[in-house]
Design brief:
Elements lengths: L3 H9 L2 H33 L8 H4 L3 H38 L19 H37 L4
Helix pairs in contact: 2-4, 2-5, 4-5
Length: 160
């Protein structure tokens, strides 16, 4: 969603259509990431003989457990806060663009960035969107990285 499909859609769809599609896809993407992170953590617990009630200290005793716990927390933060907050800001930007009659283009940033009709509140709204979107992307990348590192640790222990 965030890489191949997102980059492709951005190049062929008007901004607001692109954003509406992404607003429907990203909650599903976050749910999948959260589920995969949880599954990875559960497999870690199972492979290391750690029961679900034995505590966070045992989970974080090794790098693998710490990374998986961080990945899961990042995905939860994305699912429960960053994606909904970013989507809400995006729709506020769209409402302002539509109210001001700003033209929508394919592959461009918000016309509020360069419009002389934009107010200081509009600029603040754009900044808040960029910050929220940035944190959401970072959370997603960290999660993918931690799960990838976990797969590396598992692969090191495989015996053929």
């Amino acid at each position: 969603v965030g890489s191949i499909a997102g980059l492709t859609m951005r190049k062929v769809l008007e901004r607001q259509i692109f954003g509406r599609v992404q607003s429907k896809l990203f909650p599903k993407y976050a749910m999948l990431n959260t589920s995969c992170s949880l599954l990875a953590l559960v497999t870690y617990l199972q492979l290391n003989g750690i029961g679900p009630t034995e505590g966070l200290s045992l989970i974080c005793d090794k790098w693998e457990g710490l990374m998986l716990a961080c990945g899961l927390l990042g995905n939860l933060a994305n699912s429960l806060y960053f994606i909904p907050a970013t989507t809400q800001l995006m729709f506020k930007i769209y409402a302002r663009e539509n109210l001001l009659g700003l033209e929508q283009e394919i592959g461009k940033k918000s016309p509020l960035n360069s419009s002389d009709k934009a107010t200081d509140d509009d600029k603040k709204l754009l900044t808040n969107f960029q910050i929220s979107h940035g944190f959401s992307m970072i959370m997603s990348l960290v999660s993918m990285g931690t799960c990838g590192a976990y797969l590396y640790f598992i692969a090191q222990n495989l015996k053929f």
